[in-house]
Amino acid sequence: MSPRRRTLVATAALALAVTVATPASAAVAAPAPQSLTAARGTSDPDAAALRAAIAGLPDEDATAALVRAGGTDGRWRGSSGVHDLASGRAADPDARFRAGSTTKVVTAATVLRLAAQGRVDLGAPVERYLPGLLGPAFHEPVTVRQLLNHTSGVQAGDGFGDSFAEQYAHRFDTLTPAQVVASAVAKGPEFGPGKRQHYLNVNYTILGMLIEKVTGRPYAEEAIRLVLRPAGMRDTYFPGTDPRIRGPHHHGYQKVRQPDGTTTLVDVTQWNQADRWAAGDMISTTADLERLITALFRGRIVPGPQLEEMFTLPAGIDGATYSAGLQTYTAGGRTYWFKTGARYGYSSAVAATRDLSRVVVYSVGDTDAKDDDPNPVAERIVAAATR
């Protein structure tokens, strides 16, 4: 059953348990998109298309949108929607949000920096650094590089259930990364290492454990020291087991359809993300994500030889699109390297051409962020920003 179908069958008991809920049809005035444009080239972002992409928020798909389109060709900044549905205050362009799997860019960069320092061999078995982790079921060695590019064959770890209702009931509980990895390993390999590519959080959860083992320090401390601080990401942090978002931030909401056919928006801002950890618990801003991708691609964080890992797809695997921490696609005649992220209430992405002629970052207050289908507002932003 897809995440969308699971959401639709959420029980009435869930609705009764919600203490902060707003009907999807609530009358909240849609602030006009606020934008700042500054042209610096001959192929500037299409300001009119970008304004149109985020106009009319909040709507049934999103409560807010923050966009930064930049690079050497020119720049555009815009925001639309509301900070929260209760107050109806205009969206804050500098607000923090749950960045989801864009965390993997930071984790990959941290591992690659350790590789540049000679402390991690990307071609070595992960068991060299985490002895006994994978156990006897894994007959073929899984390398660090295979974790980075999702060709490890390690299966997904377990969470607090599959449906939104089940997960929401446990939103303040802690599921440790070690528990997640143990549940994944117990299933045995999905395929032989390097034979296929299957994007899964567990690969980066294991990489977080590797970082801690190699350095003897917490993952968050090393990610801050090796990546966030050099990139100048002053408003980004890792919450650990704290369910709150510190500082100015947007509220996130999830659509839940009730048995009577009505739809309710449940406030999902507070949520313990400990199980996502090095794979997806980061809290950030659009400005910081732009700083991250810019510093990375300029070689300010990861040296050139190791940086190539972020632009290299695994050989011999048909349809592979994931490298170390990134994914690739082509639009408007340009090749982009990007990473998306989604947690309940929030969808985000950071993308750039390798030469940084175009950089795109967005955060959308996605009302069905874990759905199988792309968010319409995010799709419009991408189409406008990459034309």
**Which parts are unreliable, with pLDDT below 50 for 5 consecutive residues or more?**
1-27, 36-42
Form type: globular
Q: Helical residue percent?
A: 25-40%
| Major sheet size, sense and barrel closure | 7 strands, antiparallel
Keywords summarizing the entry:
seven-stranded antiparallel beta sheet, three-stranded antiparallel beta sheet, 18% strand, disordered N terminus, alpha+beta, 387 residues
Describe this structure in words.
By secondary structure, the protein is α+β, with helices and mostly antiparallel strands. The protein is built from 13 helices and twelve strands. It has helices at about 5-10, 10-15, 45-55, 105-115, 145-150, 165-170, 175-185, 200-215, 220-230, 275-280, 285-295, 305, 375-385, and strands spanning about 20-25, 35-40, 60-70, 75-80, 95-100, 255, 265, 285, 325-330, 335-345, 345-355, 360-365. The chain has a seven-stranded antiparallel sheet with strand order 2-4-3-12-11-10-9, sandwiched between helices. The protein has a three-stranded antiparallel sheet with strand order 1-7-6, with no helix packed on it. Strands 5-8 form a two-stranded antiparallel sheet. β3 (about 60-70) and β4 form a beta hairpin. α4 (about 105-115) crosses α9 (about 220-230). It is globular, with a radius of gyration of 20 Å. The chain starts with a helix and ends with a helix. Mean pLDDT is about 90; it is low at about 1-25 and about 35-40.
